[in-house]
Design brief:
7 helices; binds 3-methylbut-3-enyl trihydrogen diphosphate; alpha/beta; binds magnesium ion; six-stranded parallel beta sheet
Length: 240
């Protein structure tokens, strides 16, 4: 288990990665890796629930991922639909509040109803908040927020001097959430790939070598233990 004397991160974000390599190692098509990755989503949700994490954010599809081959994009959209349909009842029963965040206008028609339905039926959940970042890009999010702020200034609702960090945050997808304390990326890659560029300013990063379909609740706990060993300074010096 984790170190009970040390604080548990309130918000854990995960860049899920390695589905394609997991499939290739087995001579399977990439979509088989994505399908297997659903198990790891369940593991992460369990791991987070067991530890009392308040918010779990999963990066599942980036704005850049739209450039993957059409068959892979379709497979991912269809998995989103199936995940939402299959997990709706259980997540609602467990009190998990699910939200899908990103440029949702681009999400395939076939997945939209399932996404709307899971968001509706889990809206009252208060044990864990689960954010699925789909068609999400950190730069796009910042541009979108800036555009909204510019509009409000142009309409005389806000003065330029009132544009500050708090105002910016109110216009991000994560408006009502604390910044992630811990970011996990699986499959050993050491980059952000355009994920939560604003929110990760002071987040602790743990890179796990495990490919996403093999990721378990124990791997989640291991990452939290690593987080608990870190000394977060936020630019200050330690006193005492
Ligand atoms: C993560 O696995 C899932 C998505 C980005 C949609 P990848 O599909 O990126 O797997 P690799 O990196 O090719 O192994
Ligand atoms: C990052 O993974 C995006 C998601 C996890 C959704 P990618 O596999 O797309 O990132 P790169 O291409 O390795 O940077
Ligand atoms: Mg990848």
């Amino acid at each position: 288990m984790t170190d009970s004397a040390e604080p548990v991160p309130r918000h854990v974000a995960i860049i899920i990665d390695g589905n394609g390599r997991w499939a290739r190692k087995r001579g399977l098509p990439r979509h088989a890796g994505h399908r297997e990755g659903m198990k790891a989503v369940r593991e992460a949700v369990e791991g987070a629930s067991q530890l009392g994490v308040e918010v779990l954010t999963l990066f599942a599809f980036s704005t850049e991922n739209w450039q993957r081959p059409a068959v892979e994009v379709s497979a991912l959209m269809s998995l989103l639909k199936h995940y939402a349909e299959r997990e709706e009842r259980e997540l609602a029963a467990k009190g998990v509040q699910v939200r899908v965040l990103g440029e949702l206008d681009r999400i395939h028609e076939s997945a939209r109803d399932a996404v709307a339905s899971i968001q509706r039926s889990t809206a009252g959940g208060s044990s864990l908040r689960l954010n699925l970042m789909i068609s999400y890009g950190g730069r796009e999010e910042i541009v979108r927020a800036t555009r909204r702020l510019a509009q409000r200034v142009a309409e005389g609702e806000l003065s330029p001097d009132e544009v500050d960090e708090a105002e910016m945050e109110r216009h991000l997808f994560t408006a009502d959430l604390p910044d992630p304390d811990l970011l996990i990326r699986t499959s050993g890659e050491c980059r952000l790939s355009n994920f939560m560029l604003w929110q990760l300013a002071y987040t602790e990063i743990v890179i796990s070598p495990v490919l996403w379909p093999d990721f378990t609740r124990e791997n989640f706990q291991e990452a939290v233990r690593e987080f608990q060993r870190r000394d977060r300074r936020f630019g200050r010096v330690r006193t005492g």
